C-alpha cells in the first residue's frame, strides 16, 4: 500500500542496500516531498516512485536510459513517468538493490 494514501506528503525511504521485508520497511525513516527535493544534484539523487524514496546516485551510470533522465527527475515524485517506461517488476527486481 502507498504511504502517500495514509499520510499525504510523507514518504518511506527504500534505499537499494536495504532489505524490503515489511517489518523492516515499517521501521524506515519518512521524508516529506520538500526534504526529497533537496536531493537533486549529480552527487545526491533521490526519486520518489510509488510512495517510496530511492537513492539513485550510484545507479546513474548503470541506468540503461542514461543519467540524464534520472537527473531530470531527481528530487521529485515521478511514478507516472517511471511506469510509462517500466513494468512494476522492475522495482520488485532492482529496487532493493538501489
Strand and helix layout:
Elements: H1 3-6, E1 10-13, H2 22-26, E2 30-32, H3 33-37, E3 40-41, E4 44-49, E5 52-55, H4 67-73, E6 76-77, H5 79-85, H6 88-94
Parallel strand pairs: 1-5, 4-6
Antiparallel strand pairs: 1-2, 3-4, 4-5
Name the average pLDDT: 79
As a whole number of angstroms, the C-alpha radius of gyration is 12 Å
Which of globular, elongated, flat, extended, rod-shaped describes the shape? globular
User: How many H/I helices?
Assistant: 6
Tell me what the structure shows.
The protein is of the alpha/beta class. Helix content is about 35%, strand content about 20%. The chain is built from 6 helices and 6 strands; from the N terminus they run αβαβαβββαβαα. It has helices at about 5, 20-25, 35, 65-75, 80-85, 90-95, and strands at about 10-15, 30, 40, 45-50, 50-55, 75. Strands 1, 2, 3, 4, 5 and 6 form a 6-stranded mixed β-sheet that branches. A hairpin with a 2-residue loop joins β4 and β5. The protein is globular, with a radius of gyration of 12 Å. It starts with a helix and ends with a helix. The model is unreliable at about 1-20 (pLDDT under 50).
Supply the key terms.
single chain; alpha/beta
Quick rundown:
It is built from 6 helices and 6 strands; from the N terminus they run H-E-H-E-H-E-E-E-H-E-H-H. It is α/β, with parallel strands linked by helices and 98 residues long.
Amino acid at each position: 500500500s502507498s504511504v502517500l494514501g495514509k499520510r499525504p506528503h510523507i514518504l518511506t525511504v527504500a534505499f537499494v542496500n536495504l532489505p524490503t521485508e515489511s517489518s523492516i520497511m515499517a521501521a524506515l525513516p519518512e521524508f516529506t516531498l520538500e526534504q526529497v527535493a533537496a536531493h537533486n544534484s549529480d552527487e545526491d539523487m533521490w526519486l520518489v516512485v510509488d510512495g517510496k524514496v530511492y537513492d539513485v546516485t550510484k545507479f546513474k551510470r548503470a541506468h540503461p536510459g542514461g543519467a540524464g533522465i534520472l537527473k531530470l527527475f531527481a528530487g521529485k515524485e515521478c511514478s507516472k513517468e517511471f511506469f510509462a517506461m517500466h513494468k512494476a517488476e522492475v522495482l520488485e527486481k532492482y529496487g532493493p538493490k538501489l
